[in-house]
Structure formats: structure tokens, C-alpha cells
Design a protein that fits this description.
The structure is a single chain. With 633 residues, the protein is of the alpha+beta class. A hairpin with a 6-residue loop joins β15 and β16. It has an eight-stranded mixed sheet, with helices on one face. The protein has a six-stranded mixed sheet with strand order 11-12-13-14-15-16, covered by helices on one side.
């Protein structure tokens, strides 16, 4: 690449906007900093956490630059939030409850019991969880893990489980608690659309960006995602109703199920003997996502707000503190009620006002531009859009109720990006004229418009170095001004890839443990979404699996659709090939670790019919692309 690939300094318009943020909000308020440091007991002696191959998966020193004054290239509010999130070490929440913070995107909570400890949400990867447990034991003694609890179905709350317990521990009686529906949601989210989510997550968390004042400064909810081994041990005990109580190792817990809030399977926990309330990820020190930028199903803010009301009703009168699996706790009964009530009002306001406006005919884009939070909510730091945002959350609510179409027939059948871009550029007088005008808009400080119009040039002429350079510059300035950590990361990742090329996906959520937790039905479904439909339109192949000590399942590829049916009823096609095998062999084949020839060579496998038909069927499967283009065609 012949164009400039270096990060630029903040343009005057961005520097002025960031300075206006500093004047607007109460930066002299140090309550959050006091809370973030309260109970600090120490941190790890070794600040770089590595995997077994010596590869760095987390660096506790990576955000040391945040100790300096906020530069013009960062929003001061985001800089403040990132500084708070970068506080790392072991913290005493209250007597008998401790948190490891700053060792990953999330927190690991440890509750002491009579014989050992309950570990809540063991981070994203085994390496960081093991380092966090070692830190705790260095201060509190080598207590055994007597229980594990997953608060919800996102990987940063279960992925490090093998860093704190083993299969042998669980087999020996260490329970693993989780909310009802946990396993289904945990594995399906990371497998069905996992490749696309993973690629977009690389943008969302900016894991490949250099850390620094012109690079990645945090993600709002935490700093970034670790890049170690994502593991999973399936739950052995489930929480199925609000009000359910469990006692493990002398630790009494009262549960509140909150499905459909921040995760499809989630719960809050009250510890009556500690007067402490764990809010999982339902109430944190930011506005959360209703639709995460990496992609997910839209969450329901109405339900979210109602569960927060229920939490106040159930537990506030007996809670002297509230903590969560991100950020820092809130101490004091009155402050807990205020915090939870303001979080409730935040989601309820977004829901109700978006619905009011869409019923007046406004589109999602228009609502996002007009909706403002009440001053009383905006003054509270914990309502700021560091992770979710008012803008993309209101669009998510619109999508939840009305979908992608805004009702204007002109938007019903638009050209796709490349074809549309070519026509726009032609209508605007060609790439040279667009860039001439865009450079003036850039000088005027309208970086948002530059990114919108120059994006058309990049998609019409992807090799146009001048367009790519200007687009990267505009995205970078938008990142510098963003209060939202994930917006900043998206903008800066876009600029980085325009200048340096694709960086891929650092973290793989569909790890061996996650894949092993899939049911056979989920594995067959995962196979079906890999079928190249057009290539297989004319194929008609049926394969029957007789699973030893299990069911009979028939796969059929027809009309470009791969279906599976259990049993041998009238809806089941006659097979081209019939295979009797153990479920472990079938799983290995479906996961690609065993081929048809390997299968045929096994003495424990019986095959009747043409094995070539199985090979033909597997040949119609496509391979997901974890490095697909985002800011270029």
C-alpha cells in the first residue's frame, strides 16, 4: 500500500467536541473511583498471562497509559470509564465475598463457604480464570472449589471454567449451577452464527488494535476479550424458578430468573447471610446493549425493566450492597435502590419513547437522532452509553417491533452495496468529484458525512487508494469522538483494516468444549446451514445412521435443504447408505475430525450401501469464512 497507514491526530472539530464533554459532565465526582478501588487486596505478581504455548492472552499492563490525562484523540467520558475498568486485582466486596477484576472482560466472583469456595462466572478463558484463582488463593489460602455457578449463557461468564475445576472435580460431586436453558443458548449462539459474530466481535472489542491514546482504550463493559482457551463444563444443577433456594458448602442463595434480559438464560442471586445481591449482567455501570454490535437476537427492554423492578421488590430491603459480573459494586441500601431504579428507568424510557415515536411515524434512524435521555438519568454516570448506546438501542427496539423495513417503498428493493455504490458515484460525477467534495467536508469537520459518501467510492472502486485513505481518516476521527467503547473500536478497526488489510478473528468461541456440548440435533442443524444450496439443487441423497445404544436418524439432502428425521416412519426416505456406529464416531464425522474413509476402516462401524453417497453429501458443505470483508467489498 502506497498511502499513509499511520494513525492521525485528532482534528480540531473532534478536539473541541471532546473538550465540550469535559465541561458538560461532573468529572470531579470520584464516587465511582472510590468504589472501584474499595477493598483492594493486591494484584498478580506476573502481569502477563500466557497460554501453554507461551502466547500472551492477557496483559495487565496494557492499559497503563490510561493513568495520564485524556488526550484530544479520546472522549473524556470513555477515558474515565476505561480507567475505572482497568483497575485490576483481588477486591473484598464484603466479608466472605471477593472479586477478581481487570483480568478479562468480565469479573470472577468468589464466595467463601464452610469448606471451600463458590466460583461465580469464571471469565472467558481458562488461563485468565486460573490466574485469578491463584491470586485469590495467594491472599486467602488454598481453598478448594466446592461449586461453580454460571449466571448466564455468554462465553465471558463460563469460558474459563476449566481454569478453576476439572471434569474429575465435577464427577466427584462439585456442582455446576446455571439458569434453565443455559446450555442450549450458550452453544447455539456460538455455533449457528458464530463465525459471523466472531468476525464482528473482532471489530467490537478491537482486540487487534494497538492499545493507546489513538487506538483501543476499552470496550465500556470491560477492556477487551482475552484470547485464551474458551472451555465449557455442562451444568449439573439448574435454577428453574424465581424464589428457588440452594445451599452449597453452607452458602445460602435465593435466585431470581431473568430470561430475555441481557441474555436469553440469566439469573440474579441474593445472598441473605451477606445482605448482598448479585445482578449478573442485568445492572452494570453503563447502558447495556439491546442489540450488540457483533450481532444477536434483539433483547426486550420492557421485560428487562420489569425484572429490575422485581429485583428491587424482592431483595432491596435486605441488600446492603449490589455487585455484578462486570464493573464495581454499589454499597449502601439507599444507593442500591437508586442504582437499580435508575437502570430500570433507563431501559423503560428507551422502550416507551421509541414506541411512542414509531407510532407517530418516525423511522428507526429518525428516532435515534431525536431521542434524548431525561437530565436526571443523563447525570448518572452509570446510564452512559459506553457499551450500548441510545442510538443503536433505539434502532434495535424499532427492529424488534417493526423489522428492517421502514415502510417507505423506495427502500423495499434497494440495490446491494457494490451495485448501489457504483451508481451513486456515477451520479455524483465520478470518484474524483466525490473525493474533492469529501475532502472539503472533512476539513469542515463533518466526518460522519465523509464516511457515508466515501464508503460508496470504496465499494465502487475498492483499489482506489485515495478513497481508502480518506475513509480511514474519517472513521478514525469518528472513533476519537465516540463515548461508546464499541463504536470507537468499530471505527478504529475499520480504519485499521483499510490501511493494513484484514486482521481476522482473534477469539474462537466455537471451541472443542462448546462443540462437544451440542446435541445431535444441534449438530445436524449446524451441518444444514453449511449446505451450499445452489450447488445441491439437483442432489437427492439419504443417509441413515443407526446409533449404537441410541436412535436411528436419517439425513436427506433434497432441494438444497438438509433435513434429519428420527425413527423409520413413513416420512423417512429410503437410504442410499446405512451406517451403524457409536455416537462418538458420528460426532467426530459431523465435526470433521473423522472422514468417510476413516469411518469405513473402523471395525466397530457397519456400512451397507454406497459410501460414495456420504462423500458426495459432505462435498456440498461450504466452509465459513472467519476473515470476511467488512469495510471493503
Amino acid at each position: 500500500m502506497s498511502w499513509n497507514t499511520e494513525a492521525r491526530q485528532a482534528e480540531p472539530a473532534v478536539a473541541r467536541a471532546n473538550e465540550a464533554v469535559r465541561r458538560r459532565f461532573p468529572f470531579a465526582d470520584t464516587q465511582d473511583l472510590q468504589d472501584a478501588r474499595r477493598g483492594f487486596m493486591g494484584t498478580a505478581g506476573e502481569h502477563v498471562i500466557k497460554d501453554a504455548d507461551g502466547r500472551t492472552v492477557w496483559d495487565l499492563d496494557a492499559y497503563g497509559f490510561l493513568a495520564q490525562e485524556c488526550p484530544a484523540s479520546a472522549n473524556p467520558s470513555l477515558w474515565r470509564q476505561s480507567r475505572l475498568c482497568s483497575e485490576h486485582g483481588l477486591f473484598e466486596v464484603t466479608e466472605g465475598i471477593y472479586q477478581v477484576r481487570g483480568f478479562d472482560l468480565s469479573n470472577m466472583t468468589i464466595v467463601e463457604g464452610e469448606r471451600g469456595i463458590l466460583v461465580i462466572d469464571p471469565l472467558l478463558c481458562a488461563e485468565t480464570a486460573a490466574a485469578g484463582l491463584a491470586l485469590y488463593r495467594g491472599h486467602r489460602g488454598d481453598r478448594p472449589v466446592t461449586a461453580v455457578l454460571y449466571t448466564h449463557s455468554h462465553a465471558d461468564h463460563f469460558g474459563g471454567v476449566r481454569g478453576v475445576v476439572t471434569d474429575a472435580d465435577v464427577a466427584a460431586g462439585v456442582p455446576v449451577f446455571a439458569p434453565q436453558g443455559f446450555l442450549e443458548h450458550a452453544v447455539s449462539e456460538n455455533v449457528y452464527a458464530g463465525t459471523a459474530m466472531g468476525r464482528r466481535a473482532a471489530y467490537m472489542y478491537g482486540a487487534a488494535l494497538p492499545k493507546g491514546e489513538r487506538g483501543q482504550v476499552g470496550a465500556g463493559l470491560g477492556q477487551t476479550t482475552s484470547t485464551g482457551a474458551v472451555t465449557l463444563i455442562p451444568p449439573t444443577a439448574h435454577i428453574t424458578r424465581t424464589g428457588q433456594t440452594e445451599t452449597v458448602d453452607g452458602i445460602r442463595m435465593v435466585f431470581q430468573l431473568t430470561p430475555g434480559t441481557e441474555a436469553p438464560a440469566e439469573l440474579n442471586i441474593h445472598f441473605p447471610d451477606h445482605a448482598a445481591l448479585c445482578m449478573a449482567e442485568n445492572a452494570t455501570h453503563n447502558l447495556h446493549n439491546l442489540l450488540t454490535l457483533r450481532g444477536a437476537q434483539v433483547r426486550d427492554p420492557r421485560v428487562w425493566a420489569r425484572y429490575l423492578t422485581e429485583a428491587v421488590d424482592l431483595f432491596a430491603a435486605s441488600s446492603d450492597l449490589a455487585f455484578a459480573s462486570h464493573h464495581w459494586p454499589v454499597w449502601g441500601r439507599e444507593r442500591v435502590v437508586e442504582f437499580l431504579s435508575e437502570q430500570r428507568d433507563l431501559y423503560a424510557y428507551l422502550h416507551d419513547q421509541t414506541l411512542r415515536m414509531l407510532n407517530q411515524g418516525l423511522t428507526g434512524l429518525e428516532i435515534a437522532e431525536r431521542l434524548e435521555l431525561p437530565p436526571a438519568l443523563e447525570r448518572a454516570w452509570h446510564t452512559h452509553g459506553y457499551y450500548g448506546s441510545v442510538s443503536h438501542n433505539t434502532k434495535a427496539i424499532y427492529q424488534r417491533y417493526l423489522g428492517w423495513f421502514d415502510g417507505n417503498p423506495a427502500h423495499l428493493w434497494e440495490y446491494p452495496p457494490v451495485e448501489s455504490a457504483q451508481r451513486y458515484v456515477d451520479f455524483m460525477g465520478g470518484a474524483g468529484e466525490v473525493l474533492r467534495r469529501a475532502r472539503q467536508a472533512y476539513a469542515d469537520g463533518d466526518h460522519r458525512w465523509v464516511a457515508q459518501v466515501v464508503g460508496h467510492v470504496v465499494f465502487a472502486e475498492p483499489d482506489n487508494g485515495e478513497a481508502r485513505e480518506l475513509q480511514a481518516d474519517a472513521l478514525e476521527q469518528l472513533g476519537y469522538g465516540s463515548e461508546n467503547g464499541t463504536w470507537r473500536n468499530f471505527y478504529l478497526m475499520g480504519a485499521y483494516e483499510l490501511r493494513h488489510g484484514p486482521v481476522g478473528t482473534p477469539t474462537v468461541a466455537a471451541s472443542p468444549d462448546v462443540l462437544a456440548a451440542l446435541t445431535l440435533d444441534q449438530l445436524f442443524d449446524a451441518l444444514a446451514i453449511r449446505v451450499d444450496g445452489p450447488r445441491s439443487w439437483d442432489a437427492d441423497i439419504a443417509v441413515r445412521w443407526n446409533i449404537t445404544k441410541g436412535d436411528t436418524v436419517t439425513l436427506r439432502l433434497r432441494n438444497g435443504v438438509l433435513t434429519h428425521v428420527r425413527g423409520t416412519g413413513p416420512a423417512v426416505a429410503d437410504p442410499d447408505v446405512e451406517i451403524t456406529l457409536a455416537e462418538t464416531d458420528l460426532r467426530d464425522l459431523l465435526l470433521g475430525t473423522l472422514g468417510p474413509a476413516d469411518l469405513a476402516a473402523k471395525d466397530t462401524v457397519e456400512i451397507t450401501g454406497d459410501t460414495g453417497r456420504l462423500t458426495e453429501l459432505l462435498g456440498f458443505l461450504s466452509t465459513p469464512d472467519p476473515d470476511f470483508a467488512i469495510v471493503t467489498p
